[in-house]
């Protein structure tokens, strides 16, 4: 039926065909699609006489029988991997941070965690949303007039022989608006 197939292609329709489980019970076989099964087995490996150290190994098997079995398994793996990659890109948080080295004296005094002779950095989140309208300082109108005169080659920048250069020195701790300016 074309309508059912079209509904299944939507995200909600696709989810309706799955069952949510937090963890697959050991030694279980699940039918993923008609004729395609996932078998999960868990094995605990430990050295003789050493119960404290052991390794748990989980094995996943995809089984399919019938015509085009290999292609169906390959198709499912490709589809699952593509979905996983898409999830990673949507979940990835792209954020920038500024790291500043803390003086050794603060680290030694115990003001900063990890002050045992190692280098300690303070982390500041940086934002990409920095509109000029959100910047406030006492001489903002004066600066805007200077930039407008520079851009329009007006005022002192209109004088023949006067260099057409404008430089600004910005200083201050993180978050004071240097990037916004």
From TrEMBL:
InterPro entries: Mitochondrial_chaperone_BCS1 (IPR050747), P-loop_NTPase (IPR027417). This is Vesicle-fusing ATPase. Coiled coil: none annotated. It comes from Diacronema lutheri. SUPFAM superfamilies: P-loop containing nucleoside triphosphate hydrolases.
């Amino acid at each position: 039926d074309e309508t059912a197939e079209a509904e299944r292609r939507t995200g909600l329709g696709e989810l309706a065909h799955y069952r949510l489980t937090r963890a697959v019970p050991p030694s279980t076989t699940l039918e993923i699609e008609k004729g395609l099964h996932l078998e999960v087995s868990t094995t605990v490996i430990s050295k003789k006489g050493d119960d404290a150290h052991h390794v748990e190994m989980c094995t996943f098997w995809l089984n399919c029988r019938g015509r085009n079995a290999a292609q169906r398994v390959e198709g499912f793996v490709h589809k699952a991997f593509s979905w996983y990659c898409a999830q990673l890109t949507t979940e990835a948080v792209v954020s920038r941070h500024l790291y500043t080295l803390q003086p050794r004296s603060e680290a030694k005094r115990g003001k900063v965690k990890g002050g045992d002779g190692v280098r300690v950095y303070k982390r500041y989140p940086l934002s990409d949303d920095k509109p000029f309208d959100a910047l406030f300082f006492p001489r903002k109108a004066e600066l805007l007039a200077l930039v407008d005169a520079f851009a329009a080659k007006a005022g002192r920048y209109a004088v023949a022989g006067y260099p057409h250069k404008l430089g600004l020195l910005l200083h201050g701790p993180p978050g004071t608006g240097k990037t916004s300016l």
